[in-house]
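Task: encode each sequence below as structure tokens.

Item 1
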Amino acid sequence: MLLPIYLYGQPVLRKIATDITADYPDLKKLIEDMFETMDKSDGVGLAAPQIGLDIRVLVINLDALSETFPEYKDYRKAMINAHIEEVSGDKITREEGCLSLPGIHEPVTRQEKIKITYRDQDFVEHTEVFEGYVARVIQHEYDHLEGKMFIDHLSPIRKQLIKSKLNSILKGKVNCGYRVKAVKK
């Protein structure tokens, strides 16, 4: 089922998400719906706060990048109760966008390596190290679980330059090809 994506300004995007238990109602269906919503919206990652739930669940699908990066063929991952244990490596700056911030793309600096503990769809715990682009996508989605967005990493000058775009999103004046839930003014 396609779910609406919550846009910038929705309070749930600024809440710190909470861990869930294995008996969370319809968890597997929720994860399926998150994958479907992300895929139909042309995203590579989606966190539960972006669909209005303040729980620690995120999904990633890098298959769309597999023509350029064959190592991402069929790369799909769900992470439940994700907690980054460590960030390391060089700081790399790359452009990022976000389904909750349609039309905004800005350079963001992140470290190239993370160690993260999470549970998979069967609620089995994993601790893994990710590097490169996968680590960037996980950090972006993880920020959503911490009540942050990629624009929080921008300099005050960059934030000022996108202020009119942010105000348009707040007013619901966005044009994107997926269902959204904007702030009601």
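Item 2
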Amino acid sequence: MAALVGLVALLLTPTASAAPAPLPAGQVYVALGDSYTSSPLTGAPAGPPPGCQRSVNNYPHLVAERTGAQLTDVSCSGARTRDLAAAQTVDGGQNPPQYDALGAGTQLVTVGIGGNDIGFGEIVRSCVSASPVGTPCRDRWTEASHDELEARVDALGDRLDDVLAEVHRRAPAARVLLVGYPSVLPAEGPGCYPVVPYTPGDVAYLRGVLGHLNTEIADAAAGGGATYVDTATPTVGHDVCALPGERWIEGLLPTAPAAPVHPNALGAAAMARAVLAALGVPAAA
């Protein structure tokens, strides 16, 4: 089965000889997603409610600016897959069900969701260690042969299948992109304790969790009539351990405007470039 999924993904992945069709200007574009889409604190606020922390520098706005698309951005910090179908209560009000922004006239949809379904914020907090030895994070989340985070990521797959089915139902003419998560942790090596206080063993464990999450998202896209947008590969080397200026994902104590362990403005721009590449839009000169 894994081989079959991989073959389908390969067949659906644009190549140099089968580049995606250029995106016509003025397309009606709806962006759905969580805080990795809304991009808190990276720029001026972009629409109510304030608790969604949408920024004008997030990747949907940058993609719309580059392509001339007519953007409706309903992404919201803290959103889970369930918040696409129901109102989400945040500081300053409620974000309406994100699906409500879709319609028969929608031509482009990006969806960036899933991290909160597996408990991203809880994981970030619980894995902080007062000592650089051992694997306290892995030990917390695993018992005997059961890995709770692995199970959560596996369960996300069915939810993403449902998400894509609903997006296609509400916006049947839309081109749909399912956006993955960037490289939060170094692609190799022990990490950077104590700057980011995760032990080397737990960095390796969490790297695996994030890789599994992106694989699940890519598999859902391959089976659900969507294009997977890989934001992990183009952000390698710009993770939480990179130096300021080279760092696109901020650490627990940001040194550039961003939420902790979230993309800063450089990271949001990198994610926008990945989306534009998936759309066949050339990089700006």
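Check on item 2: The chain has eight helices and nine strands. Residues 61 and 227 are 19 Å apart (CA to CA).
End of task.
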